[in-house]
Amino acid sequence: MTIVEKILARASxxxxxxxxxxxxxKVDLAMSHENAALVINQFLEIYQGTPLPPKIWDPxxxxxxxxxxxxxxxxxxxxxxKKVRDFVGVQGVGKFHDIRGDVGGICHQILPENGYVRxxxxxxxxxxxxxxxxxxxxxxxxxxxxxxxTVWALGSVLNVEVPTTIKVVVKGRFKKFVGPKxxxxxxxxxxxxxxANFKVLEFHGETIxxxxxxxxxxxxxxxxxxxxxxxxxxxxxxTARYLREEAGVTGPIEPVLPDADAAYESxxxxxxxKLQPQIACPHTVDNVKPIDQVAGxxxxxxxxxxxxxxxxxxxxxxxxxxxxxxxxxxTRMLIFPASAKIFRQAxxxxxVGVFMQxxxxxxxxxxxxxxxxxxxxxxxxxxxxxxxxxxxxxxMGNPNSEVYLCSPAVAAASAITGVITNPRKK
Amino acid sequence: xxxVVFKVGDDVSTDVIYPGRYMATVLxxxxxxFAFADEAAFNAKLKAKQIPPGSILLGGxxxxxxxxxxxxxxxxxxxELIIVARDFARIFLQNGINLGLRMIVCPDxxxxxxxxxxxxxxxxxxxxxxxQFKIEPMPRSRxxxxxxxxxxxxxxxxxxxxxx
Lengths: 426, 164
Hints:
By secondary structure, chain A is α/β, with parallel strands linked by helices. Helix content of chain A is about 30%, strand content about 15%. Chain A has two domains: about 5-270, Aconitase, domain 3; about 280-425, 2-Layer Sandwich (Aconitase, domain 3), CATH 3.30.499. Chain B has one domain (about 5-135): Aconitase, domain 4. Classes of the chains: A alpha/beta, B alpha/beta.
């Protein structure tokens, strides 16, 4: 069995499953953000006309994290957040992260850094980038609000078809200023935005073994941009190190690994030794080009942050490049750490000072400009270069603008010049 | 007979179907006003209720890719559009089934705006061009949810069975 087949078999109480089987796995962790407001509506509707009181099956397994519109940009959002806050209080939801400078942040950073996700877990979230948590060897996938209401009621996901798995084997050493973001953009460009629809991407190879959990989170986060149900990395020593040292996990860690004779739909081999920085050009994430084909493109806004690339190592590389430099006139730079914890770490290491002295605006942790809801919108005809995960038309709040996606190193180097710049050629 | 009222290309994302800046609106009664908000002509017709219920929105491949936002489904279900596409992105397809949106997977469909399409269980005939196209069945794993009239009704049944 593949990792996902093994996880689904265990969670469904079956000795084995294979791709195509229909199962009803028990959920280990169910995450929502502000869209819990809609989940609540659907959840209460399930109980309409029944004598049963609406009660979450296991509030300790539910996480609610405010990140999409923090602090609230409108009275409507604030009222929705209030409704969710009241509900999680009444239901006793165990993992609630409000808008705070101590425990707040983006949901896909909060879950790993608090040790909420473990290898072998079934994790569902009302957010497509829930795929991120495959970085810790869990089967994690995005669902809609109504599906989450079912999970809250029953504790299982109903009628899950066991997905097929594509094995991705990655070899070679990254060149300087090339890393996980370039690898995943390259892969998406290669297999297309539909290339893994309804499938799992399972990452293997020496490059993955040597990669930090932060890098693995980038790969799994963006697996959904190839349509994947989930991305997953087999749990190993690095997973255990991350969970023990960075996430403070003390309980047992039980990796679920694929069998040697696991059945894969296909195998993709990639050697990163010669990979150059990659750019996803407007308006699809699979419109990927090596940086030299788009270098020199004028950009009005640089964004570093998000659940994809807002962690400490991302900020470290940006600070290294920006130290003593200035953001180009006519270009604005927005930096938003993925969590309050990372923000505090970046303060301690002096990165925030470097960014501000360079002219960047450092914003509170949250989804920020990534989805163009309440800050960092683009003007008509403007272009952004961003370490986020999507460049769909209108994504950064304006359909008459463009978004290019890149790594933190490319974003930082380009902030200094005001044009898309290869950090390897500076 | 259902008419194609709006045709879009491949990889149409939920950011295009329901832009992120309207996500604070969640009620299915309120989301239709923002359907394809940045496609001014189509959105205006929807808002003016000039699109007859049962009209066809024709998508390409990977319709509904991107975010899991359910507003992208409820905004199309409100005006009772039928979505015909070459295929759908996973989360959108599941959300559509869960909410009872009418969706048809037609891998080889060729049609233009204004064409009339005759729908049956396993085939679609473009009456304007005279060509017939095969319809793919919905995932069998989800048929019970379709038959129950959506996931809320199905969950309610399951919940009551679990208690008994």
